[in-house]
Amino acid sequence: MAVKIRLTRMGAKKAPFYRIVATDSRKARDGQYIEQIGYYDPTKDPSLVVVDNAVAEKWLKCGAQPTDTVRRLFKDAGLIERDTAKAEKAEAKPE
């Protein structure tokens, strides 16, 4: 079983609200999940992100792979280290 950490959509039409969940990668986007890790509300200004760090670290240590969007949210929350290699590569790019 491959576990992913991804967003599941909640809320009304044109008013999205997302839960950050750990789920089996074969399940549907809004289907059954194993555990809720936090939530993300992009409609607020600034965007609201709440993550239970202990639960997120537990799943990351178990090998769960976050999606690109969740990885960005975790980096902004300070849960995952920023990729210094990509930043150095971007600075060294010749013009």
The CATH homologous superfamily is called Ribosomal protein S16
Total domain units: 1
Derived from helix and strand composition plus strand pairing, the structural class reads alpha+beta
Low-confidence stretches: none
- Biggest sheet, open or closed, and with what strands and sense? 5 strands, mixed
SSE order: EEEEHEHH
CATH class: Alpha Beta
Enumerate the strands of the largest sheet in spatial order, edge to edge or round the barrel.
4-3-2-1-5
Based on the structure given, which CATH architecture is correct?
2-Layer Sandwich
As for the CATH topology, it is S16 Ribosomal Protein, Chain: A
Shape: globular
**Mean residue pLDDT:** 86
> Helix segment count?
3
How is the secondary structure organized here?
Layout: E1 3-12, E2 15-24, E3 35-41, E4 48-51, H1 53-61, E5 65-66, H2 68-77, H3 84-92
Parallel strand pairs: 1-5
Antiparallel strand pairs: 1-2, 2-3, 3-4
Question: Please, could you describe this protein's structure?
Answer:
The protein is globular. The chain has one domain: S16 Ribosomal Protein, Chain: A (2-Layer Sandwich). It has 95 residues and is an alpha+beta fold. The model has no long low-confidence stretch (mean pLDDT 86). Strands 4-3-2-1-5 form a 5-stranded mixed β-sheet. It is 29% helix and 35% strand.
Entry summary:
This protein has helices at about 55-60, 70-75, 85-90, and strands at about 5-10, 15-25, 35-40, 50, 65. The chain has one domain (about 5-90): Ribosomal protein S16 (S16 Ribosomal Protein, Chain: A), CATH 3.30.1320. It has about 100 residues and is of the alpha+beta class.
